[in-house]
Amino acid sequence: MAGGPAEWDAEAYHRLAKPQEEWARQVLERLPLRGDETVLDAGCGSGGVTRLLLERLPQGRVIGVDGSRAMVDEARSNLARWGDRVGLRVGDLVELQLEEPVDAVFSNATFHWIADHETLFRRLREAMKPGAPLVAQCGGEGNVAEFAAAIEEASVLPQFAAAFEGWPTPYNFAGPDVTEERLREAGFDGVRCWLEEKLVEPKQPREFGAAAGLAPHLERLPQEQHDAFIDAVMERLGAPISYRYVRLNIDARAS
């Protein structure tokens, strides 16, 4: 996602966020599917991973929800050939309401953009049939710590500080233990959560960082300051620039 209210450069994200798509392929292998289910893609983004879901559902359907209108518009363009086998909508996952419960929920690189995980998991459970699997991966405890520190340092520079004064961090990087507890309280069983480290050394580190992580910050700044803020973050990362991801994996079933 784009799980929160920030708008994203959807075209750039679709083009540059290939590591997230590759990780999603591995996560999808954990999702048990016959091929005729209706699956919720919770945070469908630009549709790259939604396409992978559709390929596993030759007689099924995907409902894609994302908080960013730009992402959903990009997904509609990228998934047009799938017709009515995919339904896409703009929406906040903590306010999710579906017409019919789904057979499974999948999510990739989304939950860490949502502050209220307790409500998120309750909403997902309400949208699922009993016994339906939830398989997800998102940023976890310690995720992109160096990148987050560089953003924080850039945010307090005099030319940017007013835009971020009193603004809470947009990330929610939870650990496995607290996530397992929240899932059980929300009505899931068979819960298992664990962390996994991934190192990304992109060929275009500046463009990658801006597309994959800075949208909420850039939205608070006037357009003419965007490049300066991105540069300030990159300078604080040092060279060569890499991104140390810590992914939180989630497997659970609706009780």
What does this structure look like?
The chain has 255 residues and is α/β, with parallel strands linked by helices. It has a domain of 173 residues: Vaccinia Virus protein VP39 (Rossmann fold), CATH 3.40.50.150. The protein contains eleven helices and seven strands. It has a seven-stranded mixed β-sheet with strand order 3-2-1-4-5-7-6, with helices on both faces. Strand 2, helix 4 and strand 3 form a beta-alpha-beta unit. Helix 1 packs across helix 9. The N terminus is likely disordered.
Outline of the structure:
By secondary structure, the protein is α/β, with parallel strands linked by helices.
Helix percentage range: 25-40%
Mean pLDDT figure: 92
Give the termini separation: 26 Å
Order of helices and strands: HHEHEHEEHEHHHEHHHE
**CATH uppermost class of one domain:** Alpha Beta
Radius of gyration: 18 Å
Overall shape: it is globular
Main beta sheet: strand number and arrangement? 7 strands, mixed
What percent of residues are in strands?
15-25%
Which CATH architecture of one domain is right? 3-Layer(aba) Sandwich
Care to count the β-strands?
7
CATH fold name of one domain, please?
Answer: Rossmann fold
Residue ranges: pLDDT <50 for 5 or more in a row? Answer: 1-5
Write out the CATH superfamily name of one domain: Vaccinia Virus protein VP39
Arrangement of strands in the largest sheet: 3-2-1-4-5-7-6
Count of individual helical segments:
11
**Structural class of the secondary elements?**
alpha/beta
